[in-house]
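Hi R.,

Here's the chain you asked about this morning:
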Amino acid sequence: MKRITLLILLAALPAYGADDCHIVCVAKREAVRYVRDAKTLAAAPLHWDRKEWTRFGEGSAAVVVLYETDRQTSDYVQRHRSSSTDQFAKTLTPFGGHRALQASVLMIAAGAGIHDPALRDAGSDSFESELLAAGIVTPLLKLAFGRARPIQNEGSHSFHPLNKNFESFPSGHATNAFAFATAVAGHYDGWVVPTVVYTIASGVAVSRVNDHVHFPSDVLAGALIGRAVGKGILARHTGTNVSWQAVPLIDRKSVGVMVAIGPARR
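And here is the predicted structure, written out as tokens:
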């Protein structure tokens, strides 16, 4: 399936780029843009003002509250788990992984094929947001914090930094789902598309708690990361100012904040 996705993406590149630019040229240009975007988003916190730091604290507080109640909330969800909730999770979980990436690629190809810039750009921005958020930011944080998953039965305060066997915080699926949803929703007016994509993303987050592979604070942190990167990419590519999103972090002995994406700085 990954090979098919790659072929579709390569097929879309000529139509997506300039008429006189072949596939390799367009691919290189996109790679350069990804690197520039990543650098800009990483430096965004340096430009925060008082209002943004206040909102940063508000976002952090939400994860702190969930972190303190992770065990109780997780136990409650497991007590009410059923075949219906498992089927719900089985259906939606892939949209936090390969299906979201495939959807982005198909949007690029379809948008280029039918000359629909909004569809094409929604696919492009969501694809980049997913790569940066779920492919770079979240994996690095997973490794750094090494939080045990609830299914490993070590409790909600168990951390093993730099140990690849412990990857609960933050949730990669929630990151990916909300990166996709945010980038796509930003290209459409009205309520229909945003409602659909955010409902699916929220379903992915809930599914990860149902499946006992993440605590609630894991999925909230992942959602914040995905939304933050998605908003940042939209700001970079549309030139509009957007509010940043907090990305709270948790380690063995403390709860705090570290990384977030602010308004674009070109």
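One quick note: The chain has one domain: 2-257.

Cheers,
M.
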